[in-house]
Amino acid sequence: MKALTKLLLICVVGLAVLACEQRTDQTDSGGVLLEMDWASSGLPFRVSVNGVDSLFIPAITIRSIVANPNIPTSQLMDVELDTLEVTFTRGDAGTRVPPPYVVAVLGTVPVGGTLTLSNWDVMSFEQFRNPPLSDLKIENGGFDKETGLDVIRLNLVARVFGRTRTGKRVESPPRAQTIEFSQ
Fold first, then answer.
1. Residues linked to residue 114 through DSSP beta bridges, in sequence order
2. How many angstroms separate the CA atoms of 41 and 175, rounded?
3. How far is residue 25 CA from its own chain's centroid?
């Protein structure tokens, strides 16, 4: 009888724990979305690769959007950022692209609020010292070895990643910007 009582007690406690965990998940499930914007940030549309070893955005605004405004919010839905990732595609006939730029980001976006990052690099020396951008440097000939052109059009595709305080992974949709690189 004691064994049955213990087993029953364990089941009741287990169900209570699962119910609490489910409640937390429901509060946070799909709870927040991230949106990244750098509109009017002064990001150039054309960049000379000679004498440049990084490219930065003066201001990136990250918004936390409540996915379901009908549910209550809490600080558990705040997003702790961890990574900014910029990948590249070609906007011209070329296929070679710089390596991805991935950098740690520390900051918290409050639920329903914003966080502004100032002067964040979106390209570093690593992207400029590798093909295809390194081809455009004067000492390397000043033209893309793949296309023969002296201008390379790159699409920068940026995303920011983080986790809610409950551990749910959140990422922004891709934010793209096309830039022409020249000698």
1. 63
2. 13
3. 23
Q: What order of strands is seen across the sheet that includes strand 55-66?
A: 32-37, 55-66, 114-123
CATH architecture of 31-182: Sandwich (2.60)
Task: Determine the 3-state secondary structure of 165 from DSSP.
Answer: coil
Q: Which amino acid is at 94?
A: G
How far apart are alpha carbons 154 and 132 in whole angstroms? 10
What is the distance between the alpha carbons of residues 180 and 178, in angstroms, rounded to a whole number?
Answer: 7
Where in the chain are the domains? 1-30, 31-182
Q: Give the whole-angstrom CA distance, residue 24 versus residue 29.
A: 8
Report pLDDT digits (tens) over 62-102.
999 999 988 899 999 999 999 999 999 999 999 999 999 99
Taking a C-beta distance cutoff of 8 angstroms, is the pair 83, 107 a contact?
no
What is this structure's pTM?
0.78
- Is residue 87 within 8 A of residue 51, CB to CB? The reply is no
**Residue entry with tokens 């793209």:** 176
